[in-house]
Amino acid sequence: MSQSAGKLDYKRTLFLGFGFLASSLAWSIYNSLVPVLLEQRFMLSTVVIGTIMTIDNIFGIIFQPLVGASSDKTFTRYGRRMPWIIIGIPLSAIFFTLIPWAQSLGLMMAFIICFNLIMSMWRSPVIALMPDLTPRQLRSKANGVINLMGGIGSIIAFLIGGILASLDNTGRLTFGMGSIVMVLALIFLVIFIREPVADAWMRAQREQVGKRLSAKEFSKTLAEEEFAEIKDKGGLDRKLTSGEKKSLILLLGAIFFWFCAYNAIETFFTLFATNVLNVSTGVATIMLTSFSLTFVAFALPAGLIAGKRGRKKTIVSGLFLLIAFMLPMIFINPILTVLGVDVASASSLLIKQIVVIGLLACAGFGWACVNINSLPMVVELASHDKIGRFTGYYYFFSFGASIFSPILFGAIRDLTQDYNTLFIYAVICFGLALLCTLFVKHGEVEPHDPEVMEEALLDA
């Protein structure tokens, strides 16, 4: 590790976050505008839109665990993870730009499928960079910084993207802006982030006399060195205890349920806002900015709080906050009706916008407490040589929720003909996540961890 046990390299971690910024920005624009494009251009039903919106998650659940495990064994002059990222981001940006230009459903589906397939090939590697380069006990704090950058990506998507969507309802300006930011984020990653494997490649080449080391020879040498290093630390192929396995299953179950809630809100909020709150698509997109703003503001504090109170307690507090601030969203129109206010009047629209923005802003803090600390809890149970694989587990369950949830809620909405059921559904899912989390017993930094003990001694 290049960082000491007690001090995070904030500068490098910020640059590392550009990969998550690119990913978050793309998905925020995609999830908020693609459902609207599908409904307005092709008059599709909600359940069909929800099914189409699961394509990215189907690819993610299939390819991200495989790619994560494959990147653990990738040895190149550019590192383990960077080759996947360098190829993936530009190709994703190209197909992302093309989506709103499609005037036929077949062509739009072709662009959507290509974009989602390529995105699934680099997301696990870009996320695995953080635990690769960060000591165990600093990962919640580092994940706070990474998610701060992701939140900035969402703010760019919702705020600037919302303004551009108001100016151009075809979505071409918004998707074009997103592609440009994705490419700029890649440039920052390439310039400022260098994996230890890449440095090892350069050292190995300098040590060669009279010939150039092949990639195959290098990978064999590096694998042998890493095997010896990990074995010395007691972290090679570490078997989980029965208690750790139970905690991992419960934690992954909690991740599944809270992403069921989150993805339903992210996918259908614009339709909820246009149908229930009677606001324009651009305004609905901008309203989500309040959620992202507080998420960004509390991303780093959420990691710091976990360092003091523990990851589990922080997640539980976050889930309570999410339930508390999502529940009132169900009763906005009924309360106004009881008060004798015309829900379609200009004053009512303003009141609803202010209330929803306030509730989303408060819920953003709860989401920071949950989201910042979940991945560190999962990879805490992984040995050093399986970080990519456990990152894949995390995305298997989070993307599994993203497949299941839009279809399920789409069916619920079609049966009830009421978008107001969105937040009833979300509160139930957050409640189930809370129930699972309460029984998790592992995922904090263990004081007996050989890697932690070694780093602490070096720091002292």
Give short descriptive properties of this protein.
single chain, 460 residues, Growth Hormone, Chain: A, 20 helices, 0% strand, disordered C terminus
Short description:
The protein is an all-alpha fold and 460 residues long.
Architecture overview:
This protein has 460 residues and is mainly alpha-helical. The protein has one domain (10-206, 240-459): Growth Hormone, Chain: A. The chain is built from 20 helices and no strands. It has helices at 10-16, 18-42, 46-52, 55-72, 82-98, 105-119, 123-133, 139-167, 172-192, 196-207, 215-232, 242-277, 281-287, 289-309, 311-326, 332-338, 346-380, 387-416, 421-438, 450-459. It is globular.
Topology overview:
Blueprint lengths: L9 H7 L1 H25 L3 H7 L2 H18 L9 H17 L6 H15 L3 H11 L5 H29 L4 H21 L3 H12 L7 H18 L9 H36 L3 H7 L1 H21 L1 H16 L5 H7 L7 H35 L6 H30 L4 H18 L11 H10 L1
Helix pairs in contact: 1-8, 2-8, 2-9, 2-12, 3-18, 4-6, 4-7, 4-18, 5-6, 5-9, 7-18, 8-9, 8-13, 8-14, 8-17, 12-17, 12-18, 12-19, 14-15, 14-17, 15-17, 15-19
